[in-house]
Amino acid sequence: QVQLQQSGAGLVKPSQTLSLTCAISGDSVSSNSVVWNWIRQSPSRGLEWLGRTYYRSKWYNDYAVSVKSRITINPDTSKNQFSLQLNSVTPEDTAVYYCARDGRPFTSRSLFDYWGQGTLVTVSS
Amino acid sequence: DIQMTQSPSSLSASVGDRVTITCRASQSISTYLNWYQQKPGKAPKLLINAASSLQSGVPSRFSGSGSGTDFTLTISSLQPEDFATYYCQQSYSTPQTFGQGTKVEIK
């Protein structure tokens, strides 16, 4: 059974960097058949996909245009986890952040089948 | 980006009612459409994949249909544990986008 366990700071000051980690059990961050994603949810923006990382002989990342200049998603193979860093945050980045696995990526059956528990991140001084 | 529009935004229903939620895509997405259920304080849970394929363990009272731009999630007989918010999500193109949600409340 795949489990995703999130950790990271719940309060970040404006202009600083949001950092979250998603630890994977029951699967591998280096799997060449799945994709690892970050998604956030806020009342104003709803559910918003932020980006993903995946391994297909080498590492790839894709990011949402809305955050592309500020986001980094990195895999950590030694700890079987992946991380989210979002720079220069503003109050508009306040949201619940989720990590999620796409178990059938790049197919007609692509889906987010496993999710982390969610982390409420508040951007405030 | 593909816009996903759900209707209604909320509905009130009674246990045993048949409930239908609609999701419309701003362009054709074939059957690249998933449905999720979310309860307060929890992550979304996948119910239906590829427009009509029920996930393992999901009760058969849930069903999905549609293709192209118009999709439907139906709950044939609403149960107390079904009161939640439901989201559609397209996986046709990146970025994958979600509808704004439909909250199903107790009448």
Main sheet summary of chain B: 7 strands, mixed
Q: Specify the helix fraction band of chain B.
A: under 10%
Tell me the number of strands of chain B: 11
| Fraction of residues in helix of chain A | under 10%
Mean residue pLDDT of chain A: 96
- Total helices of chain A: the number is 0
User: Roughly how many Å apart are the termini of chain A?
Assistant: 39 Å
Largest sheet of chain A: 7 strands, mixed
Rounded to the nearest angstrom, the distance between the terminal CA atoms of chain B is 36 Å
Radius of gyration of chain B: 13 Å
Specify the overall morphology of chain B: globular
SSE order and pairing:
The complex is a heterodimer of chains A (125) and B (107).
Chain A: E1 3-8, E2 11-12, E3 18-25, E4 35-42, E5 46-55, E6 59-63, E7 71-76, E8 81-86, E9 95-102, E10 112-115, E11 119-123
Parallel strand pairs in A: 2-11
Antiparallel strand pairs in A: 1-3, 3-8, 4-5, 4-9, 5-6, 7-8, 9-10, 9-11
Chain B: E1 4-7, E2 10-13, E3 19-25, E4 33-38, E5 45-49, E6 53-54, E7 62-67, E8 70-75, E9 85-90, E10 97-98, E11 102-106
Parallel strand pairs in B: 2-11
Antiparallel strand pairs in B: 1-3, 3-8, 4-5, 4-9, 5-6, 7-8, 9-10, 9-11
Structure summary:
The complex is a heterodimer of chains A (125) and B (107). Chain A contains no helices and 11 strands.
Description:
- The complex is a heterodimer of chains A (125) and B (107).
- Chain A has strands at residues 3-8, 11-12, 18-25, 35-42, 46-55, 59-63, 71-76, 81-86, 95-102, 112-115, 119-123.
- With 125 residues, chain A is mainly β.
- Chain A is globular, with a radius of gyration of 14 Å.
- Chain B is an all-beta fold.
- In chain B, 0% of the residues lie in helices and 50% in strands.
- Chain B has no helices and 11 strands.
